């Protein structure tokens, strides 16, 4: 009797465990969850059949929340929903009513799959799927899956198409007609800073036969294809032609670099780095900084002490309207060039002064770099990021700076953010400002002149490679 009773208890426990296990393998309509305040890192709702990946709430910096798929062994996110800022609190709710919806009772819907399905499952390859079953179907349809909306990571055997992008902050990876490109966003303009063009050694890209796509191979490379035949390009990793048993992924890092890793069972091993020189990264030292290979970072103005990215922006700022031509100072710096200049447009000019004048006349130009040897003039129509320090004094930079601190020289009377300045009050203000400015300049005994309608005041700052020119155009 006791043995029978014990068997019944064991059977009941096993059945209970199976039900718990089954409940974590799929989510059905009516599912709802809120963040659990007792959980400090990750709140799981769903696992794949092998237990390698999990879907749930990820806590970020204590108070922020992300909807993510994690690699369980490393607690590394491999997919994150593209949501706006969401707080880890009881007012946040995740529901599945055919669509997955992340909302907050105070701020409304933050993210939704905008789909219609019957259940959510997590596949062994980390692909989160919404599946729909119709009567008579031999299998489910897939109205939505995370593999179609990657965040900053591409997983082994996941197709990366021209309609997708990997995104990390201001950086993105996209496919072109015959290349893979890395881009950085400046004032809503994408600028390419790394490009890998298809070699077309084993197969050619044929016009009219569809766009290219990319996929990580188990043989240690990122392949580019136009169809399921031979790849039109192979970007090899360190493990090229040495198959590994662990998972491989490609990730766009927060510094804009593209790297590949594989899981060896206990750690992620670096397998590929797109940009091997730190100074060639778009903004390695931060804005208004110079990165010299082997010698670290320094601020462009030679005055501000550099400790970390962001230090150089304490005294300089370019925020505001790019259309403004007033209230800026000029920094000239020799021995500098632009990173990834091979991918930038340039114009051949006869002299440094011609290159500078071209930028000076263009209100949207933030700066220019001129090569006295080649005569190439590179114009910057975006915020000044990190420059590369070189030993060649023939390479000279010309940069417009808008002072960020109120009351400093160079601020002037400017209308930022695209707001027009007109009317009598503005006219009186400009007149008063002009009288005050003239008095101040005379007091400081500055040398004044007229250069093409622009009044310039030149001040030698005691450096052969640094000069500040305060300008204000009418």
From TrEMBL:
Domain of life: Eukaryota
One Pfam family per UniProt: B_lectin
Keywords: Disulfide bond, Membrane, Signal, Transmembrane, Transmembrane helix
Transmembrane spans: 416-439
Keyword Aminoacyl-tRNA synthetase: no
GO biological process, one term: recognition of pollen
Signal peptide start-end: 1-22
SMART domains: B_lectin
Record's keyword annotation contains Disulfide bond: yes
Domain Apple: residue ranges: 325-403
Function per UniProt: Involved in sporophytic self-incompatibility system (the inability of flowering plants to achieve self-fertilization).
UniProt protein name: Apple domain-containing protein
Species this protein is from: Stephania japonica
Organism taxonomic ancestry: Eukaryota, Viridiplantae, Streptophyta, Embryophyta, Tracheophyta
């Amino acid at each position: 009797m006791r043995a029978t009773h014990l068997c019944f208890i064991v059977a009941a426990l096993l059945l209970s465990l199976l039900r718990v296990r089954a409940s974590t393998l799929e989510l059905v309509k009516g599912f709802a969850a809120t963040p659990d305040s007792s959980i400090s890192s990750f709140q799981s709702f769903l696992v794949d059949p092998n237990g390698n990946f999990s879907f749930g709430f990820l806590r970020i910096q204590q108070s922020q929340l992300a909807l993510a798929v994690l690699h369980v062994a490393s607690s590394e996110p491999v997919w994150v929903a593209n949501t706006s800022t969401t707080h880890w609190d009881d007012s946040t709710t995740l529901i599945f009513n055919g669509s997955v919806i992340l909302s907050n009772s105070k701020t409304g819907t933050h993210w939704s799959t905008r789909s219609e399905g019957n259940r959510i499952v997590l596949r062994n390859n980390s692909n989160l799927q919404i599946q729909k079953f119709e009567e008579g179907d031999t299998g489910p349809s897939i109205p939505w899956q995370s593999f179609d909306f990657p965040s900053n990571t591409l997983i082994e055997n996941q197709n990366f198409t021209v309609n997708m992008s990997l995104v990390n902050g201001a950086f993105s990876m996209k496919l072109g007609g015959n290349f893979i490109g890395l881009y950085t966003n400046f004032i809503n303009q994408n600028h390419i800073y790394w490009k890998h063009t298809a070699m077309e050694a084993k197969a050619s890209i044929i016009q009219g036969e569809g766009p290219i796509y990319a996929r990580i191979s188990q043989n240690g490379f990122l392949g580019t294809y136009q169809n399921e035949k031979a790849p039109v390009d192979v970007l090899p990793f360190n493990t090229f032609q040495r198959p590994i048993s662990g998972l491989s992924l490609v990730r766009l890092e927060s510094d804009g670099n593209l790297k590949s890793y594989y899981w060896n069972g206990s750690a992620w091993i670096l397998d590929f780095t797109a940009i091997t020189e730190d100074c060639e990264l778009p903004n390695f030292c931060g804005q208004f900084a110079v990165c010299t290979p082997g010698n670290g970072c320094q601020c462009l103005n030679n005055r501000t002490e550099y400790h970390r990215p962001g230090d150089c922006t304490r005294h300089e700022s370019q925020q505001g309207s790019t259309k403004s031509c007033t209230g800026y100072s000029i920094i000239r710096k020799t021995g500098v060039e632009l990173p990834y200049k091979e991918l930038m447009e340039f114009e051949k000019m006869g002299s440094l002064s011609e290159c500078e004048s071209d930028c000076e006349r263009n209100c949207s130009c933030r700066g220019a770099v001129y090569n006295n040897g080649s005569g190439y003039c590179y114009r910057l129509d975006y915020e000044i990021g990190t420059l590369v320090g070189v030993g060649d004094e023939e390479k000279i930079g010309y940069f417009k700076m808008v002072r960020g601190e109120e009351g400093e020289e160079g601020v002037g009377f400017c209308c930022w953010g695209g707001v027009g300045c007109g009317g009598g009050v503005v006219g009186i203000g400009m007149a008063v400002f002009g009288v005050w400015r003239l008095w101040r300049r005379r007091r400081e005994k500055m040398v004044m002149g007229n250069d093409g309608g622009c009044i310039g005041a030149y001040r030698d700052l005691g450096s052969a490679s640094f000069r500040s020119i305060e300008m204000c155009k009418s």
